[in-house]
Every structure is written in structure tokens, then in C-alpha cells.
Amino acid sequence: MRFTFFLSAGALALGLLTAPAAAVAQKVKSVPFSYLPEQAEDRYNQRVTRKMLPVAGGGFVILAHKSATQYAVERYDADLKPQWTAAIPVAEGESVEAFGHGSEQAFVVLHQKDNANQNLSAVLVDLRNGQKAAPKKLIEAAARDRRPGVAVSPDGSKLVAFRYLTRDVQIRAISATVYDQKLTKLKDRTYDFHDLGDFFSPTVHVGNDGTQYVALISDQMKKLTVRRYLNDKPETKVMSVAVGGSFGGKAVTVFDAKFGLQPDNTLYAAAICTERESGQYYSLKVVKFDFAGEGDMKFAPEFRFTPEYLAEVNKTAQTSAKRLEDVYLSELLLTGEKQLVVIAEKKYEEGGDESPVHARELHVFGYNEFQSPTWHSIIAKDQVAPPTESFTGIGFRAAVFGPDVQILTQEKIKGKSDLYVRQVNVQTGVVSPPKGLGLSVASDQNLAYVKDFTGWLDAKTIIGVSRPSKKSAALMLNKIVVK
Q: Secretion signal: which residues (predicted)?
């Protein structure tokens, strides 16, 4: 079991693979790019999934894997001109835990482990000139303990490093330290769970103001619980809602859950629930936690995964599945009008660690500003990658621009291997046909596209890393301006 922190358009989606729109890129600029593929311990859960981050004032920063012993933070301007490079050495026993930036510095968090201890340390890099500070230790734990973690606020101005305190394998508390973007300590805090009984998969979130939220699954996998911790008060505020239980004589529990903290400190949660005995997918449930004032929790009407929905999925994806399987929550996207879009994706491996991995159809659900479900769409795709690449090249990227969600994938459609963009209208759920960007991505068994570097500088400008043809062995950093 895995926890990760959303009018039907099925008929429209069915035609997407058979009728791609013409390429829409107005201009593609490319420069050579050096990158060593990651050797992920867990192919489903990469620690750093976004290695290209836009920077205020123009351009972007990249975390590049240069060699077995070195990463680098690199800044480019909006025309792909390199501005500076800051080398980040990685010694034996070290790995990258997080990458992000605030208004003044980029940061790389490293995890180090030896026979006795493990710790997290951060390296700050000045966004103006690439000057690098000495590593600063954030938190330490015994080697036998669970791996410590780090959470970053939406604007990158706050960071929380934490370690788990366990007894008989069960997590009893979390010891945390809150830092500002210059790594000045703001607060030491302990999140105590002794009063909770059983619970699973606590995730730590931190707001732009330094407030911390711990989200978890409790009450035998039936409740979503969020606990808020302030830096200036000792009290803990708790909100909890049952999403599982007994329905029609069937025990229903949480299978997969995702939480998303917004810049205004509201926190949205989505949960896929399944029938405990059969494993059948039961429903999607969405909750909004708002701790402002007296606090408010809003529970959206559930979306049931009925036989009719399965039939729609099979028709759209041109499959013959007997039940929903391997569908996991991927994105919670909020528009400026407070409309929520939840995206789940089917992804699986054929069998065993050395088998190919697949990423298939997207399940997209729209909620209005009052949190009523208004539409759902199914987007058909069929991506496969060798086990060495895992999900670094397949899957999707998504972003909100005004009333639309843009979804970008690398696919081979009608014999054309390219990056494709689909537009989802958040008001109606209507999905546009996939539009090729005219990038020409190699279609073979070697590394051709690295999704980690894909992102938007604005609604019309996309950055990505790909290999242009079978004959080329070199990756290219691309800037694509679309119509």
C-alpha cells in the first residue's frame, strides 16, 4: 500500500490517440545538456521529481546530476543562456533529499548515512551569483531510525526538517525544527501522537508563515486527520473526518491519499477508498481543511467508482479491464477561482523489479468553488519505459493557467514521438486533442526524455530535456514557445 501526498468527456478522450492536432510550437531553442540518470531506490516514489524551477525576474534554476559524485545547481536566463553554476559534491553514503528555492537562495538538501548516524544538511546557493554557502546540518538521527525528512513551504521561504520517534516500529512522535530561507532556526517542535492510537503515513507540511500541519490516516485507515502547530503557541488544533466506514455492509478504507497545502494555508485532501475485503475501488473523496478563525472543514460529495465508470474507462482507453486497479492520486490543482482539479493516473510494472513500467490513462475530476463535483474526464494514453528509467520519462506534468489546466506528456501518437499538450477546461471538463510541440523526441530503448526537467515559465513557454533522434546520444535542454 502506498500513500502519496483531482458532463463526462470519455467520448472525446477516446479520439485523442487517433486524431492528434497539428504541432503548435512557434519556436524551439535547444542547447546541449549534461545529465546522469538517477539510480532510484523506489521507482514509484522519487525524492526529487522537479529539477527545473522558474525564478522570479525571469529564467530558471536546474538541479543537474553531473556525475556519481557531483550535482550542480545551474541558473539559466529565459533564452537558455547559462548565468552561473554551483557544484554540489555528493560523497559516498549521501543522496539528494530535496531541491527548491525562496526569493533569495536556492537550496539542496542532502541525506547522509553511515554505520552510526544519519542526518540532513542543506546547501544554500545565492540566486544572484551562484555563491555557495557551507553545508548546514538540519537534523540528525540514529542509523537504525527511519529516514528523516524535510518539508518546504509553497513559496520556499520556510523549511521543516524532522525525524521520527518510534516504539515497536510504530511512530509515536515527530521531532522537528523550523527554519527560514536563510536556515535560521525559528522553532523546535515535537508533534506527539500518543493520543491517536493507530495511524499511518504522517506527512509534514509548512505554510509560508511557518505554521506546520501534520496530515495522516487514522482510525484503522478510515479517517483523514490534520493537526496544526503554531510557532508562537503551544496548543495543537486538530481536524478529522471519516472517509471510510461501513457502507451497505461493506467495510471501506483509505487506499491512497494526497494532501496539498495552499499559499493561504488552506489544505486540500483527496482519498481513493476501496472495499477492504475485495480491494474494489469504491469512491473518491475530497476534503478542505481551513484552520483560519474558528476553523472550517468542508467535505465534498463522494464520486463513486461504479460499473458504469469502469465501462467508460475501458471505452476511452480501449481496454477490457474487469476492475479498476493501479490508479493512484497524482495532482491537486487549484485555480484562482478556487476550483479544484484532481488527477489520478494508472501506473504499474509488468512484474518484478527488472520489468518495464507503464503509465496509462488519467482520471481527472473537477470541483467548483463550493466543492461540488461538476465533471470528470478520462484521458487515454499508453506509455512504457524500461526499468532503468522508471517513471522519470513517462507520466505527465500539469499546471493551471487561468481557466485551463495544461497537461503535458511524452508519447508516440500516429508514429510521431513528441511532447504533447492537452488543455482541460476547468469549467466544463472538456479536453482538447493532444497537440504536438514539434520537438522530435527519440523513440528507442535509450534515455529520450527526462520528465523531471519539464515545466512552464508561463502559459506559452515550456522548458524540457530530451534527445532529438535515435542517431543522437546527447540530451538537449529545450525552450518551446507555443501558439
A: 1-25
